[in-house]
Amino acid sequence: MNRYAAPIVLLAVLVALGPTVAPALAQDKTIFVPLLVYRTGAYAPNGIPSANGFNDYFNLLNERDGGINGVKIAFEECEMQYDTKQAIECYERLKAKNPVLVNPFSTGVTYQLIPKAPVDKVVVHSAGYGMTASADGRWFPWVFNFPMTYWSQASAFIKYVGQQEGGMDKLKGKKIVHIYHNSPYGKEANPTLEDLARRLGFELTLLAVDHPGQEQKATWLQVRRINPNWIYISGWGVMNQVAVKEASAHGMKMDHVVGNWWTGTEVDVIPAGDAAKGYKSMNFNAPGAGFKVHQDINKYLYDKGKGAGRRDGIGEVLYNRTLINAMLNTEAIRTAMTKYGNKPPTGEQVRWGFENLNLTEKRLEELGMKGMMRPLRVTCENHEGNGLAFVQQWDGKKWNIVSDWIEPMRDIVRPKLEAAAVEEAKKLNYSMRDCAKEK
Amino acid sequence: MIYREAGQFKTTYAGDQAVFPIVQDRVVVALAIVAAFVVPPVLAGEYWLQAVLIPFLVYAMAALGLNILTGYAGQLSLGTGGFMAVGGYAAFKLATAWPGLNVLVAFLFGGLMAAGIGLVFGIPSLRIKGFYLAVATLAAQFFLIWLFNRVAWFSNYAPSGTITAPDREVLGVLVTGPNSTAAVRYVVALAFVVVFAAVAKNLVRGRIGRAWMAIRDRDIAAEIIGVHPLRTKLLAFGISSFFCGVAGAELVFLYLGSAETLAFDINQSFLVLFMIIIGGLGSILGSLLGAGFIVLVPIFLTNVPHWMGLSMSVALQKQIEVMIFGGLILAFLIVEPHGLARLWQISKEKLRLWPFPH
Amino acid sequence: MIAETLYAVLVGPFRDIVTGPLFFLEVLIGGIAAGLLYSLVALGFVLIYKASGVFNFAQGVMVLFAALTLVGLIERGVPVAVALLLTIAVMIVLAFAVERVVLRPLVNQAPIILFMATIGLNFFLEGLGEMVWGANVKKLDVGIPDESLKVAGVLVNKLEMTAAGTAAVLVAVLAVFFQRTRIGRALRAVADDHEAALSIGIPLKTIWVVVWSVAGIVAIAAGIMWGAKSGVQFSLSLIALKALPVLILGGFESVPGAIVGGLIIGVGEKIGEVYWGPLVGGAIENWFAYVLALAFLLVRPQGLFGEKIIERV
Q: Is A310 helix (H, G, I), strand (E, B) or coil?
């Protein structure tokens, strides 16, 4: 022991005693929404615009409309570094504030929270990610993954390829490679792609890339040997930037390289520079800052210095996606209020709101989001909704929409999904509810 | 004056060599264990149990295991995460294949499987030493994670590869699964740590432990005086991996509830290694203190701004937190390079003498 | 069934190699390029281990920190050359700070304690780098287009070739520095025996600052090369993991070992992944690198170029 000892011992005592102080309780006149974000760490480039979108939309509602039907939204960020263990710590801590819903923003974390949802009475909304099987609302009443699942997305991608090749029958004998992040997230699309390969007769090769995915030389050498007609990428984080760069460095036709909707944002293509020109990706939300909601965000938030990020970040792909995600959250709450009144709803009531969400074209226009996404209807059976996807292309400066809205192959995906839901629900000892009895 | 040892005489060798030779220590430790079983389940909220105490206990278990291998037998290992994964997946397979089985048996089975795998990857330790040995354990780490990720059988063919702890009862109480309470899971984790800390303590002060330390301090000399190096090293690998395997099963069943292979990645191996270095190599208490430091300090640092009512962006807060955490590691090492356990030992010596200087 | 498996494992890949020699050449070149990039990171570890016996866990974060500083300065309008000089200055300051705060108080401690100290340093730099320069990905344009040329039917990447060239030059410079200069000789003396070096008047503390500075400069080079591939972002710090098998294979104390080790690991893991990976479902290169290193170590327990371990009682 020496002269450092005293302060260190003091600190140790503080470490031991500090946490006994109770956290302040949230006000009961607001709706509390926890935000699990990752603004630091390896996945921060994706996490920052996502977190900003949520912040800005909730703040916009509070500033412009005074909340949802007069009930303000209280929200709190918790930094989880895209790490499941930290996310649990965040979730458990924020649970004390009585949240009604949670957006995990990571497929791994979604898997963690799904079993907790019915116990804690907190709706899990994994918008465009998470467990595909949870789209069967009969088995998973508390989990929602509208506007679309990974499986639907993969089928929409194949449909797009079919369109480009001049018909689904032309897919026979074509070679498609799926390069995926070697995690539950990356693997999600594989069963659908394998199924479609059998039905449509294209040759599918699956190539896994381990986290973090900085070194993909071997993967792309194999791609080069296969010389595929189309490449589909399910990546996240640094894997995306490297994949885009390697694709061009290995002489792939960039307009035949298509990312899924987590593999096609500005940060994925900008580090690659001109090499990324022509690269495509799936999406379900229109990119760009030209919508009315963006004008409002500028007017009510950024002009007053209340924006969450930088002004030039408005309209980025992930920013727009979380704007929509936040809007879907709040519209579901609004739906709940039509039944239960304009007061802070409970988790149960919000769950009803999610299940009866009917987002019309007219409503989207009122929200200033006309054209940003498709109208959406959620039902008791179908927690995926009837979302559509499209393909966007990078022109070196911005993303442009290059396809119509594509309807996924629901007739193929849905039966598979229902079968998977039975399997997944069995693990959790769930029983199927009868949607006919629900109102 | 805190320790009044007057009148405590040791009249037998056994008494002199007891784990806690001083009566006050025995009383305090016994009380502490009882308190640990009773107080948190009654008083602590779910946040405390689920996000703070259970992970602490799970990592304490892993740290005990690694400390046997690295701290006592002197074999550096970076395969802890891999061995934990073996435990987690083996326990999962057994528990789902045989639903009627007591889930605690599945934990021990996980430990046994991990021990077997640990033995295999321990074989190169006879030839490769020091930092170089890390390669064998790293090969184990990366290979095992790849295997569990690759072979769908291990996750019962779940399309995503995620394993989920099923609901299982022990003596009519739900111990694992999403519907079990955090308090019950805490008690189970604590029981495991208490029992296995006692086992570890008695192992290391016996014949086996002395053989391990002889190998650690100078392996050639140990060989000359009759310690069989291969058998001793492999035993350390096996027992250490057993502890890690049980910790892995606990990680899945008691802490996370559902896990993917990423939960066992190389970072876990590093984390557990940090725990035993900062806690004290070659010390059972050190394993627990180190696990406490690495698990609790970041959570504490995360919460400080909330308690103080400071509002700053979460990113800045995290960055400062990481910096302070790094600074604290440095500070503790500079104060006492031999870890928290040594710090505790010195304080205890002082307490025994206090208020007299000598 | 067994015969088929054996054929697929033992014959098939070799048949592929023979029937597609041009592609094999590409794999080989890709492996060499990747390997040299690993070497660049491994070099930083070796320099520090050689002179101070510290296994510097923070080397990966130093790469990140250096790249972040460089890009951050360039983004703020500092000319590239000036930014580079400033970054070097920052790394030298860092070396002084490390010597003063970390190494000096822990002199004569066991290697594992020093290793732990660098872990503390690792966390500290990680937080500091992000706090100062932000966590978002930054584009690093080194003026070399990441495009490929066809040379005699073989695809060659310009950026990778530049990186490989840089690594080669850096190693040559370091070799000359170690062999020919006064301070280089002093470094080798310290590496051989701390006490003997001290007793003939070599200032240990200065030597430490010098090696940490040189390791910092190597980190800048590694940061630029990796950053040009993926953009400068937090993940850069994780490449240390890819350098680990290289380091172990080459020997902790050997500069040539880092290079040869890098080549063996780079080429080995690419060939393994491309030709044997598909047989077992792919993504094997991470563990394959370690198994490869393990195989070499079983023959030479001190690494390929490591100093022979003489064991005494």
A: coil
State whether residue C202 is helix, strand or coil. coil
At residue A208, φ and ψ (nearest 5 deg) are: -90, 145
On whether any CB of chain C is under 8 Å from the CB of A81, the answer is no
Q: Give A29-68 as a DSSP string.
A: TEEEEEEEE--SSTTHHHHHHHHHHHHHHHHHIIIIISSB
- The reply to whether residue B159 touches residue A428, judged by beta carbons under 8 angstroms, is no
Rg of chain C's alpha carbons, rounded to an integer? Answer: 21
- CB-based contact (8 Å) between A271 and chain C? yes
User: Distance between CA atoms of B156 and C297, rounded to whole angstroms?
Assistant: 37
CB contact under 8 A, C155 and A212: no
Q: Please state, in angstroms and rounded to a whole number, the distance separating the CA atoms of residues C61 and C51.
A: 20
Backbone φ/ψ region at B66: left (φ over 0), alpha (ψ -120 to 50), beta: alpha
Give the DSSP letter of residue A201: -
Strands (E), A128-277: 143-144, 175-181, 203-209, 230-234, 257-259
Cross-chain Cβ contact C277/A218 below 8 Å: yes
Cis amide leading into A408 (omega within 30): no
Q: Which amino acid is at A328?
A: L
Per-residue pLDDT of chain C (313 residues; tens, 9 = 90+): 788 888 888 888 888 888 888 889 989 988 998 898 888 889 899 889 888 788 898 999 999 999 999 999 998 888 989 999 999 999 999 999 999 998 888 887 888 888 889 999 999 999 999 999 988 888 887 776 667 777 777 778 887 888 888 888 888 888 888 888 888 888 888 877 778 888 888 888 888 899 999 999 999 999 998 888 888 988 888 888 888 889 888 888 888 888 899 999 999 999 999 998 888 888 888 888 899 988 888 888 888 887 777 777 6
Whether the complex's predicted ipTM surpasses the cut of 0.95: no
Q: How far is B235 from chain A (nearest CA, A)?
A: 32
Query: How is residue B192 written in tokens?
Result: 């495991």
Question: Assign residue A173 a region: left if phi > 0, alpha if psi is -120 to 50, beta otherwise?
Answer: left
* Option in C23, C146, C235 nearest A214 (CB): C235
